[in-house]
Amino acid sequence: MAKPFLLGVLGGMGPLATLDFQRRLLDATPAQSDQQQLPTVVWNVPQIADRQKALAGTGPSPLPQLIHGIKALNQAGASYIAIPCNTAHHWYDALSEVSEAPILHIVDATLDALAQSVERPQRVGVIATKGTLDAGWYQRRLALQGIEVVTPTEEELAQWFVPGCYAVKRGALVEGGALLSRQASALFARGAQKLVLACTEVPVALEAVNAPFLHLTWDPAQALAERCSHLWQSQGVFNR
Amino acid sequence: MAKPFLLGVLGGMGPLATLDFQRRLLDATPAQSDQQQLPTVVWNVPQIADRQKALAGTGPSPLPQLIHGIKALNQAGASYIAIPCNTAHHWYDALSEVSEAPILHIVDATLDALAQSVERPQRVGVIATKGTLDAGWYQRRLALQGIEVVTPTEEELAQWFVPGCYAVKRGALVEGGALLSRQASALFARGAQKLVLACTEVPVALEAVNAPFLHLTWDPAQALAERCSHLWQSQGVFNR
So which residues are the signal peptide here (chains A, B) (predicted)? Predict the structure, then answer.
């Protein structure tokens, strides 16, 4: 017998982004009662080595803690797992190996949603950690769709992106939103027509300051939430 | 060796109130980094028998599903458990029996917070499900503090409270907020100087409509979140 549907969320990176993702799951599901909402078990344990520092070679690997969370979610009965953190997808293969439940990939969800969008921009900016940018996930896949990619410079990351993210992590959303808005403006100034907000702290902060260009952004956390919700809805829960 | 601190949250009643509780946990903790935030594992599975109907004798008991959630949280390593749903505390004793981790009681947290508050109202209204009101938890403990209690009539519950809660459960926060505001006004009209919002759907809806009397309310979900956060802070995490 198949396992009953239960979405495991490997969160904690950061804890606020994990809440934001849960809200997106609820919003993406047209439930008319509690019982129609998506069942989730959420591992929101932020005591995990800094992903950005690990990838920069200046800190320990978060892999042992990520594996611990994946195992806890599997033990709790998760039938699928989502990780609302782009950077953590560096360890996707290692985590998939220890997870009985399939892990939905945030980049796949985003690029699939993007491929289905009606408007096709010629040039897209990607806001992400250095680790995510270096991995090239978004750039390669966008290029395959014939889209030019603009990314932050190292200087911009140091000046706006990194301090913006850490501001979010200490709850200073307005400060974080201001810094990340400057990062976004720099990419628009270099010709980006749309932006992929490929770090889950970014939309949290930009929404907090009600950034005027939000309609020109794609949000991987949103794409991942929608994919999870579609999976749940395909269980036929709305026909019962 | 003591278990490492991990707060288990038995949620799902409803899923939105569970998110609201998680936000309160973060807000109650003066963290300067992800790593200082409270580690949680959240069971947000709303496929659980209706508590109001069960207590009215018109539906099945939620106890088996509540026990399943408590066991999953214990297996995941929870060192304490919080249940951000007043009505579910009807099954508190049965759940405590199967839980290795101590379960923090929402009524204790609220009444302790209330006993420490500087202003002492003479008359307090309690907004809650019929099940919670019939149990008399809040009324008895308030009476012990020498405070008179005003509660909704059966007619008011049927007209305002119950449809207000079910509106929240289907995401209609403004509609729910309007209905629950009328319930609150009725209690103020009968002399209540303050209100205990003893159902976790209520503050969610009243905040959504920015109810003008919010400063005259006590919120058990907030009291429970603060108790959890104090437990976490007492681990000395801010001295590390």
Answer: none
DSSP, residue by residue, B8-47: EEE--SSHHHHHHHHHHHHHTS--SSGGGSPPEEEEE---
Q: What is the pLDDT of residues B170-198, one digit of tens each?
A: 889 999 999 999 999 999 999 999 999 99
* Structural domain boundaries in chain A: 7-105+223-239, 107-219
DSSP letter for A76, please.
T
Given CATH 3.40.50.1860, say whether it is the number of domain B107-220.
yes
Per cent of chain B over pLDDT 70 is: 99
Specify the pairing of strand B80-82 against strand B123-127.
unpaired
The answer to whether B26 contacts A16, with C-beta atoms less than 8 Å apart, is yes
Is residue A228 among the annotated active site residues?
no
Closest-CA distance, B170 to chain A, in angstroms, reads 4
Q: Across the interface, do A44 and B48 touch by the CB < 8 Å criterion?
A: no
* Residue A199 bears catalytic tag: yes
Q: Among the options A199, A211, A223, A225, which is catalytic?
A: A199
Q: Which letter does DSSP use for residue B120 in this model?
A: -
* CATH code 3.20.20.70 for A107-219: no
Q: Determine the distance in angstroms separating the CA of B236 from the nearest CA of chain A, rounded to an integer.
A: 14
Q: Please give chain A's pLDDT, 240 residues, in tens.
A: 578 999 999 999 989 999 999 999 999 999 988 889 999 999 999 999 999 899 989 999 999 999 999 999 999 999 999 999 999 999 999 999 999 999 999 999 999 988 888 778 999 999 999 999 999 999 999 999 899 999 999 999 999 999 999 999 888 999 999 999 999 999 999 999 999 999 989 999 999 999 999 999 999 999 999 999 999 999 877 765
Among B44, B66, B162, the residue to mutate for chain A (most A Cβ within 10 A): B44
- Comparing alpha-carbon positions, the chain A residue that sits nearest to B40 is A44
B216/A contact by beta carbon, under 8 A: no
Rg (chain B; Cα; Å)? 17
Q: Return the CA Rg of chain A.
A: 17
Quote the ipTM score. Answer: 0.91
Domain A7-105+223-239: which CATH class? alpha beta
A13 and B CB contact within 8 Å: yes
Report the topology of domain B7-106+223-239.
Rossmann fold (3.40.50)
